[in-house]
Amino acid sequence: MTKIIAADLHYFPNLEFFAAIAGADELIFFPEDRYQRQSYFNRTQIRLANNVGTLSVPIQGRRPRIPLHKIKVSNDQNWVNIHLRGIQSAYGKAPFFEYYFPYFQKVFEQKTENLWDLNLQMLTICLKLLGMPVKMRVHEKDQDPTWGKDIRGLLMPSVPFSERDYYQPEPYFQLFGLDFDPNLSILDLLFCEGPASKSIVLKSVKKH
């Protein structure tokens, strides 16, 4: 039986997201869903030398509750260079940085206007590098609901992952410090562990 999951589209999703969708055959995303403040739609966390830092994509306007696919990136704030430098500073010495970074750099340099399109492109690359053959579909207004599991609105920064049933930290090699920082952006895992990333994601699926 095909496993279909309805999910939110995040900016470089964290490990909890990938644990939550592990085993899915297809993901459905909903461009007509409304923008929520304090969500992962425009932010992700990476590990820096002295702390965990947040990368946020600036958004145009006052951001009322409009459909996600209408959210425009504010490209006049030079955020692309800030994010590129941040990622290079955090992971430039990681074992698999030189292999994977060009994929993301290419998309960054396109300066995509819609955050929805940017997130979709980045997630496509992440799934490919992970070796997770998950189909992705964008839900259209008039389509019948055809999914089995709906995790939209459940993975929020305001609630610790430990209070949800998707992710249990599986430690892996990280560049800085002795203590393991769990549930960072998928970038952290990909740059540090490369081809081993998929198995680490699968081991981090919370057992019930």
TrEMBL record:
InterPro entries linked to this entry: WbqC
Pfam families for the chain: WbqC
Record's protein name: WbqC-like protein
